[in-house]
Prior knowledge:
By secondary structure, this protein is of the alpha+beta class. The chain has a single domain (2-170), classed as Alpha-Beta Complex (YbaK protein), CATH 3.90.960. 25% of the residues lie in helices and 29% in strands. It contains 6 helices and 11 strands. The strands form 3 sheets. It has a 5-stranded mixed beta sheet. The protein has a 4-stranded antiparallel beta sheet with strand order 3-4-10-9. A hairpin with a 2-residue loop joins strand 5 (60-69) and strand 6. The longest helix has 9 residues, at 20-28. The termini are far apart. InterPro entries: YbaK/aa-tRNA-synt-asso_dom_sf, YbaK/aa-tRNA-synth-assoc-dom. Residues 40-164 form the YbaK/aminoacyl-tRNA synthetase-associated domain. Pfam families: tRNA_edit (PF04073). It comes from Sphaerisporangium siamense.
Amino acid sequence: MRLGTLDWVPAKDRRDLLAAPVARAVDSLTEDVVVTPIDPELADTAAFCERYEVALEDSANCVIVAAKRGGETRYAAVMVLATMRADVNGVIRRHLDARKTSFAPQPEAVEMSGMEFGGITPLGLPDDWPVLVDSEVARRPLVVIGSGIRGSKLALAGEALTRLKTAEILSLAR
């Protein structure tokens, strides 16, 4: 399969291109998930899309948010298209019933996810983290996301993200 200038192969055939928690998650999925190696220096979405000729609207970002209320901090993954910004302090804060929400600090997100910063993906995250999928992501026939490492990317149907165990579909962008 080709998307942009890249050749993609089944993710189950290239576990070496996946972070360990992502490899475990891919093994449990029934959906088709493909992977391709990339230059790790080009893992950030804008650089990746420009270099490999993938449209921004075919790429989704996963951000980890920390939601705080009453001394408790809960984490959630938020999936929005690269052309959009997540409404962290509005829709997401209210949905998570938090007093305050913010992007999780990079060291915490990396440690708790078991993934590299710039490659964090909703596949393989802790079981108690909600995965909030923007409705525009869910509608994409194919969406490029992180693989848990900076040296590769995954692609799958946006709808497949809505079938993750803790997924919720919302309008998250502003």
